[in-house]
């Protein structure tokens, strides 16, 4: 069964600290993996997208890694800011054969002053 | 507008009534997607339109749900005889190309419509 599991479910950190969010998937065949940020009451916004040949991608203070062998990805946030408080969603897409995109349930990040 | 827009932003309806949710995708985007997000849950795929191809309806939860996309642009999601379990945020996304076109399918999301069935 194609699944995307994220951990932790929620996380509280102090402003300025770093954190790492995890994503494990079983989607096969694999096409790409994306991380989205979703602020409360808003639609998700793309942070990074990686294909199977890429193992790291950065977007400012956000760095995503991908290990296609172990089917794991992480999103590292450096020097967190209050505005980083949001849900972070891991999304994995299959290769062919119609629409096969699986969304993780997300990690809810709270950054406190 | 520059992004995906959805209307209404909030909708409260009585159980058993029909509702229509609208999505205006980014101009020029050929692919359009509808998702449902229940409280504390991940996004659930509902339906996918790509150009003039037949839509992928594999995610629609029941025959009370239907969607159409007129002129390859605006889309309407219709829920008939609404039930309380239909309460959720309904998100629409569009992308420049879809899967069958073989191009990038970076999805841009609208703000969603929050549906509450009482």
Q: Would you summarize the structure shown here?
A:
The complex is a heterodimer of chains A (113) and B (118). With 113 residues, chain A is an all-beta fold. Chain A is 0% helix and 58% strand.
Distance between the termini of chain A: 41 Å
Percent helix among the residues of chain B? under 10%
Q: Extract low-pLDDT stretches of chain A.
A: none
* Rg over alpha carbons of chain A: 14 Å
- What is the molecular shape of chain A? globular
**In one word, what is the shape of chain B?**
globular
Content-based structural category of chain B: mainly beta
Percentage beta strand of chain B: 35-45%
Integer average pLDDT of chain B: 89
Average residue pLDDT of chain A: 91
Number of strands of chain B: 10
Order of helices and strands of chain A: EEEEEEEEEEE
Poorly predicted residue ranges of chain B = none
Number of strands of chain A: 11
Oligomerization state: heterodimer
Structural class from helices and strands of chain A? mainly beta
Provide tags for this entry.
heterodimer; A: 113 residues; mainly beta; five-stranded antiparallel β-sheet; B: 118 residues; six-stranded mixed β-sheet; four-stranded antiparallel β-sheet
Could you please describe the fold and organization of this structure?
The complex is a heterodimer of chains A (113) and B (118). Chain A has 113 residues and is mainly β. Chain A is built from no helices and 11 strands. Chain A has strands at 4-7, 10-14, 19-25, 30-38, 45-51, 56-59, 62-67, 72-77, 86-94, 101-103, 107-112. Chain A is globular. The model of chain A has no long low-confidence stretch (mean pLDDT 91). Chain B is an all-beta fold and 118 residues long. In chain B, the strands form 2 sheets. In chain B, strands 2, 4, 5, 8, 9 and 10 form a 6-stranded mixed beta sheet that branches. In chain B, strands 1-3-7-6 form a 4-stranded antiparallel beta sheet, with no helix packed on it. The termini of chain B are far apart. Classes of the chains: A mainly beta (113), B mainly beta (118). The A-B interface holds A 4, 34, 41-46, 49, 89, 93, 96, 98-99, 101, 103-106 and B 4, 33, 35, 40-45, 48, 56, 58-59, 91, 93, 99, 105-112.
């Amino acid at each position: 069964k194609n699944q995307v599991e994220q951990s932790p479910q929620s996380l509280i950190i102090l402003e300025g600290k770093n954190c790492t969010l995890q994503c494990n998937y079983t989607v096969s065949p694999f096409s790409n993996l994306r991380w989205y940020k979703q602020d409360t009451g808003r639609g998700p916004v793309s942070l990074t997208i990686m294909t199977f040949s890429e193992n790291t991608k950065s977007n400012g203070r956000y760095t995503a890694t991908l290990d296609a062998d172990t089917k794991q990805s992480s999103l590292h946030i450096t020097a967190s800011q209050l505005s980083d408080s949001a849900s972070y969603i891991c999304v994995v897409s299959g290769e062919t054969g119609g629409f096969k995109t699986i969304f993780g349930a997300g990690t809810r990040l709270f950054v406190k002053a | 507008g520059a992004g995906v827009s959805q209307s209404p932003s909030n909708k409260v309806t009585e159980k058993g009534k029909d509702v229509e949710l609208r999505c205006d995708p980014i101009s020029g985007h050929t692919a359009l997607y509808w998702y449902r997000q229940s409280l504390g849950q991940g996004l659930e795929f509902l339906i996918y339109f790509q150009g003039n191809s037949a839509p992928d309806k594999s995610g629609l939860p029941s025959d009370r749900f239907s969607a159409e996309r007129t002129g390859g642009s605006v889309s309407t999601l219709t829920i008939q005889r609404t039930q309380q379990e239909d309460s959720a945020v309904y998100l629409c996304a569009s992308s420049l190309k879809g899967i069958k076109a073989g191009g990038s399918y970076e999805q841009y999301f609208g703000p969603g419509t929050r549906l509450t069935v009482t």
